[in-house]
Amino acid sequence: MLDAGSKFNRPSFWTHIKPWEWNARLDAGRKPPQFLLDLKEQPYEYPKDRYFDLWRVWGRRGKTNIWGRVSLRYGDVDFEGPAKDGWEVDWPFRYKDLKPYYDNVDQLIGVCGGPEDLDVLPGSQYHLPPVAPRCGEQLLRRAAKSIGIQMVAGRRAVLTKPHNGRAWCHFCGACGRGCDISAFFNSSDYLLEPALKTGKLEIVDNAVVAEVLVGNDGKANGARYFDRASGAERTVRARTVIVAASCVDSTRILLNSRSRRYPNGIGNSNDVIGRYLVEQVRFHVYAFMPELLGGPVHNDDGICGEHLYLPRFNHRDGRKRDYLRGFGMQFWGCGAVPNANFAKSLDGFGADFKRDIKKRYPALVALHPCGEVLPYRDNRITVDGTQKDRYGVPVARIDYKTGENERKMIGEMYETVEAMLRAAKAEALPYTRGALDHAGSAIHEHGTVRMGRDSKRSALNGFCQMHEVKNVFVVDGTAFPTATEKNPTLTILAVAGRRPLSGRVIAEGRGLGL
Amino acid sequence: MPSRRDLLAGAAALPVLSEAQTAYTPRVFTSAELDLIRDLAELTRFRPALAAAAATKAPAKDVITRLHPAEDPFFKQLKDLTVDAYDASREGLAQEFGWHGYTALAEFKGCTHKEHQGD
Question: In this structure, are A349 and A415 located in the same domain?
Answer without folding.
Answer: yes
